[in-house]
Amino acid sequence: MSYHIVVCGSIVPDPLQTLNPVDSPQGPALKNEMMLPAVLDPWAGHALYEAANLAAKRGDCRVWLVSLGPKAKLQQVMMAVAQKAPFELVAVDGPASGFTDSFQVAEALAQAIEGIADLDREKLLLFGGWQSASRGSGSTIQMVAERLGIVDQFQGVDQLSITDNGLEVLERIEGGSWLTSTVQGAPAAFGWATGELPEPPNNPQVGMMNMKTIMPALQQAKPAQLGNGFGVLGVSLPQVVRETRVVKDMPVDDIARELVDWIQG
């Protein structure tokens, strides 16, 4: 069976930069955010490389990258990402800061996915980052899947293999172990951890092929009106309180009771 793989991935400020939060008229923001160099979210990058690898093995799959961010920043990042793996870009023009609510982000991404003309929902594999360098709630890809009616979801995925029985998933669980699951096929959603692939080398030919669709996609990017998920009402250091008593030969039960009373008070 051929698959239509949709990767949800945003752009984030380069983690090597100093990020200073400030209060703007629109709410919390980063100081000089539009001036900061941006990169593709690392978790989304793993998802994209895994999608491209799966598509290359099958030979009959298509890969879309759905990305939400300012068009100017998206263009800068895509110039580099386009050389890593073949994909078709679906751009959504909107804020990429970590202060937007993940529910609103998921709604915008789901609408963009629903608008892909050639997408077959019966063949859909939804890829995304298990976490994010900006929206680290681990909830965005789950809500996108729910919005699209996808009930088979896996989080913390490190490996995905196609077998005679369907898709075999290696999923992280507690205690440094993995859970192996098998899903019959599409549609399904996968929140990727680090995966098992290194970052692909640059390929100028792949970059030129991708740029044929990236530039029109950026020009046709629809705006997404997203509000800030929260506001900062005030910040203050906790008050330092120190109350010391020196007591000898006090029973252990009395010490424990006094500590409980002090905590509850």
Automatic annotation (TrEMBL):
The keyword Transport applies. It comes from the Bacteria. InterPro entries: ETF_a/b_N (IPR014730), Rossmann-like_a/b/a_fold (IPR014729). Keywords: Electron transport, Transport. Residues 37-194 form the Electron transfer flavoprotein alpha/beta-subunit N-terminal domain. Pfam families: ETF (PF01012). This is Electron transfer flavoprotein beta subunit.
